[in-house]
Amino acid sequence: MAPLNDTELFRSILRKSTNIVAIAGAGLSAASGLSTSGIPTFRDAGGLWRSHDAMSLATPRAFFKDPSRVWQFYHYRRETALKAAPNPGHLALALLSVPEHLKIIAPEAKFTLVTQNVDGLSARASKQVSPLREPELFEMHGRLFDTICTVCNDRKANFNSPICSALAGTEDNLKNDSNIPLEDLPRCSKCAGLLRPGIVWFEEVPHHLEEIKKIVDDADLALIVGTSSTVYPAAGYAHEIAEHGGTVAVFNIQRSDNDDLAHFLFIGPCATTLPHVLLKVDVTE
């Protein structure tokens, strides 16, 4: 059966839901000028940086082989993300994290946001709508603005621009790699060890898997937002929720291969469809 785009029917199901989970991907940040990479998405034709396949740089092996090149790539991503702001899609989901707002939309529900994005925009949106409240938010692929020491394993948030002086200006060099000496790359304030970006690379295990599994097991409504559902384990969550009788609603800018399992499908920019469908607010881009 083809998925529906009946907004009123969806809202009636939303109102009766008790455990709502949103699984967010790159499409949520598109209206902010970002994808999860801070450049065109890894999997499209523009997923290149200085002629390098972006996916090939997002691995532990790439970092230890050439930390200068990988840090320049992530410096570029950091500088791009710092210039971005949460869009109305981020804010719509952030409002669902505030009990006073959620009660109006789904009186008996609990809401959790699981994001594959590393840009920090969902966290910033939550602080924007509710500065004193810790959101129900799981950033399963880590944070672009965290660093991890490769020696002492210390993890810290770092929003410095640039993160170190040697990287300053390299974001504007879109053709050639500068060979930055190892000692000039970001260093740990505790032990002076080499820092790495605090995100989950390919070949590494995502964060919070046990907590997310419990949320998925309990969910009776899944909002699949801006993701093509190709990266596991997140790609399997909608299927699991549908298998145990939950409702699946997909919000995406275009059709994807896994839309057939959805009960509802809302095609268009997430920055406009989410506020409209969830909050009855129309946003003009």
Automatic annotation (TrEMBL):
**Comment, domains:** In contrast to class I sirtuins, class III sirtuins have only weak deacetylase activity. Difference in substrate specificity is probably due to a larger hydrophobic pocket with 2 residues (Tyr-74 and Arg-77) that bind to malonylated and succinylated substrates and define the specificity.
Q: Which UniProt keywords apply?
A: Metal-binding, Mitochondrion, NAD, Transferase, Zinc
Q: Which cofactor does it need?
A: Zn(2+)
Comment on bound cofactor: Binds 1 zinc ion per subunit.
Its biological purpose: NAD-dependent lysine demalonylase, desuccinylase and deglutarylase that specifically removes malonyl, succinyl and glutaryl groups on target proteins. Has weak NAD-dependent protein deacetylase activity; however this activity may not be physiologically relevant in vivo.
Q: Which positions bind Zn(2+)? A: 149, 152, 188, 191
Query: Which residues are listed for NAD(+) binding in this entry?
Result: 116-119, 226-228, 252-254, 270
What's its catalytic activity?
N(6)-glutaryl-L-lysyl-[protein] + NAD(+) + H2O = 2''-O-glutaryl-ADP-D-ribose + nicotinamide + L-lysyl-[protein]; N(6)-succinyl-L-lysyl-[protein] + NAD(+) + H2O = 2''-O-succinyl-ADP-D-ribose + nicotinamide + L-lysyl-[protein]; N(6)-malonyl-L-lysyl-[protein] + NAD(+) + H2O = 2''-O-malonyl-ADP-D-ribose + nicotinamide + L-lysyl-[protein]
Main location group: mitochondrion
Q: Which family, according to the similarity comment?
A: Belongs to the sirtuin family. Class I subfamily. Belongs to the sirtuin family. Class III subfamily.
Record-given protein name: NAD-dependent protein deacylase
Keyword set includes Zinc: yes
**SUPFAM superfamilies associated with the record:** DHS-like NAD/FAD-binding domain (SSF52467)
Which cellular compartments is it found in? Mitochondrion
Q: Which GO terms describe its molecular function?
A: histone deacetylase activity, NAD-dependent; NAD+ binding; protein-glutaryllysine deglutarylase activity; protein-malonyllysine demalonylase activity; protein-succinyllysine desuccinylase activity; zinc ion binding
- List the source organism: Serpula lacrymans var. lacrymans (strain S7.3) (Dry rot fungus)
